User: Fold this.
Amino acid sequence: MEQIKIGMLGLGTVGSGVVQIIQEHQEKISQITGRHLEVKRVAVRNVAAHKDEFKDIELTTDVNAVLNDPEIPIIVEVMGSIQPAMDYIVQALENGKNVVTANKDLIAQHGSELVKIAKKNNVDLVYEASVAGGIPILRTIVNSFAADQIEDVKGIVNGTTNYIMTQMVTKGMTYQAALKSAQELGFAESDPTNDVEGIDAAYKMIILTQFAYGTNVKLSDLTVEGISKIDAADIKQARTMGYTMKLVGESAEINGQLAVSVAPALVPLEHPLATIQNENNAVLVKGAAVGTTMFVGPGAGKMPTANSVLSDIIAVTKNIILGTTGNTFNGYRQKAELATPDMVVAPYYLALKIPDIPGQLLKLTHILTEADTSVKQVVQTETDGEYARVVVITHKTSLAKLQEIQKEIKADGAISLISCYKVLEASK
Ligand SMILES: NC(=O)C1=CN([C@@H]2O[C@H](COP(=O)(O)OP(=O)(O)OC[C@H]3O[C@@H](n4cnc5c(N)ncnc54)[C@H](OP(=O)(O)O)[C@@H]3O)[C@@H](O)[C@H]2O)C=CC1
Ligand SMILES: N[C@@H](CC=O)C(=O)O
Ligand code: NA
Assistant:
């Protein structure tokens, strides 16, 4: 049987999973593609660290030996970060090689540039593993939503933070211990800052926005908040009110304009996202024709992510055989403006520190009323005699009105806002 030789950049969590699947499932892959896949050469930083585990594979620190090998038609980039990965991918594409990558940082920030280079060189550039790890969400949007009009994409798209929050809530683990465990399990990025600050999820929402609406947005177009500042008191309080807390990404189409965000949100316990635990991810895609669909699965980890990389390798292999490489992964292009804060509406949870003296709650009600925002629920959760902690859940209000409320509270001086989270509606 003819061979397809693969060159790889990186042999860490994902890379080692890719090698394992190719070795263990060679027979099935050959039957499906009609080709024998062989990992010919892998570039790493430290050959000695891998040579005992990967005796049958040629390891090198010379990236050019992978990128310039005329026998290799497919390069798998699983090393991460922007540079030098960007230069290596450009070099591979310009050398006429198809590229499979799991690198969301790179695709979210330089995807359109790389797509153009791939097209010019008539090669594939595919990156299913870059969003929601093992969930085949990108190809599903491309294939199964091609004729539908997507109205909303919402979900949990970072495995590390969902794992941390699950461990904190269900096992009482500390934030630091849960993060350490996520790193040991291979879920976190090599520098976990992007995970915990919501940036990794934001990159994934940028890619999902491109696939769902055909529109390129950049990081500065999104509102992004991570989990590092979440107060355990809010998680507890939310639970008593019938909510759990999740890091939620949303890309919504509002009258033809887009609102893309990542932030911790209160999720009603009966909402499908409330049941997503540990490193699992879930993406809800709402189409005008199909309604709401949900895709669930592991969002991080060696084998699930490697399986997505393999789905790309197999798609590219088929294209090589058919002579159909060079088609853009997602061909949909559409220009759209960003929604303004007055267009983006949701209920909000506000936790406030209020002097425990008469008239203060009235003052808060006045601020909310002035911003045309009504209250659904209000609870005084504790008092130390001097200050009370008061939690308010509003009815739907716009982001512009919320900003007005935040400004007025700040100006008041006596009342202070401890935290503020969006509240998901049970039916959405
Ligand atoms: N882990 C996960 O669950 C997921 C990861 N991803 C993405 O997949 C990619 C890889 O992640 P992961 O496997 O976790 O990362 P790891 O840190 O586990 O592995 C990175 C690998 O790349 C190699 N490498 C790094 N820099 C260079 C360089 N300059 N030259 C040659 N080799 C280099 C490292 O070599 P050495 O071993 O010698 O240090 C290592 O083998 C990232 O883009 C990540 O965002 C996507 C979805 C899920
Ligand atoms: N660090 C990422 C890995 C997958 O993309 C995550 O935790 O989701
Ligand atoms: Na995926």
Remarks:
- Residues 4 and 260 are 40 Å apart (CA to CA).
- Residues 345-423 form a domain with the Alpha-Beta Plaits fold (CATH 3.30.70.260).
